[in-house]
Design brief:
Blueprint: E1 2-5, E2 9-12, E3 21-25, E4 30-33, E5 38-42, E6 48-52, E7 56-59, E8 78-80, E9 99-102, E10 110-112, E11 117-123, H1 130-133, E12 135-141, E13 146-153, E14 161-163, E15 168-171, E16 184-191, H2 204-210, E17 211-212, H3 214-221
Antiparallel strand pairs: 1-4, 1-7, 2-3, 4-5, 5-6, 8-9, 9-16, 10-15, 11-12, 11-14, 12-13, 13-16, 16-17
Bound molecules: zinc ion.
Zinc ion (ZN) is lined by residues 80, 96, 98, 100, 186.
Length: 223
């Protein structure tokens, strides 16, 4: 559980006033602890010690992540399903690695963060991966330990950092190898925190192991 220091206080080596002072914590500092009276405390820099509980105020745990659809509702209809088999479109392993939502020929359709999370990766269309994915970015959602790769944006992908569910993170576009050039969102779900190497698929089994149906997953979260 997290606590806030209500005054400047000593972080001690032992749970007693005779314990030596490891560090002086300034009022307002947030610390981790799970004990009473003398709290065993861990600072953000990893320093451990004990503090008097009198000066530590409990902070409630953050609520679970809120979920949002990744595009406006009228477009939230699949134009292509996860693992759809088409060897002409996907000559390498014959299957679609994500889900597609079509833009019905419209431009300026916003893309939304599907949950509270963090943009952990971004690439532009003239990079190595960009040749197929266009301008793209990955949203990592800590609460479920899953990543969402948004592809084919018309302009630069969003900057790295935290985002909230429903924040606009780009526009639907057709940069990269967008099938037939149609404006659409290609969305890929990855288990865990995405690493570039995760997308170097070596087989259909590898695709199935690393990715999941992002559409079904998001729908299961939106009640
Ligand atoms: Zn696609």
């Amino acid at each position: 559980m997290k606590f806030k220091a209500t005054d400047n206080l000593n972080l001690r080596s032992e749970p007693s006033l005779t314990g030596s002072v490891v560090k002086v914590i300034t009022a307002g500092t947030i610390v981790d602890s799970d004990e009473n009276v003398w709290k065993k405390v861990t600072l953000a820099d990893g320093t451990k010690g004990f503090c008097s509980a009198t000066y530590l105020q409990a902070i409630p745990e953050p609520p679970p992540a809120v979920w949002n659809i990744p595009i406006p509702k009228i477009y939230f209809v699949l134009s292509q399903t996860y693992l759809n088999e088409d060897w002409s479109l996907y000559p390498k392993f014959g299957h679609h690695t994500g889900v597609d939502y079509g833009g019905a020929g419209q431009t300026n359709i916003p893309l939304y963060a599907c949950a509270d999370g963090e943009i952990i990766y971004r690439e532009v269309f003239n990079s190595a991966w960009g040749a197929s994915l266009g301008n793209h970015a990955v949203l990592y959602v800590h609460s479920v330990d899953k990543s969402f790769l948004y592809c084919h944006m018309p302009a630069d992908p969003p900057t790295l950092g935290p985002v909230k569910a429903g924040n606009k993170i780009g526009l639907m576009g057709n940069t990269g190898k967008s099938a037939g050039g149609a404006i659409h969102l290609h969305l890929e779900g990855f288990h865990g925190r995405f690493k570039i190497a995760d997308r170097s698929f070596i087989s259909l089994a590898d695709i199935k192991k690393k990715t999941f149906d992002a559409d079904s997953f998001i729908r299961s979260k939106i009640k």
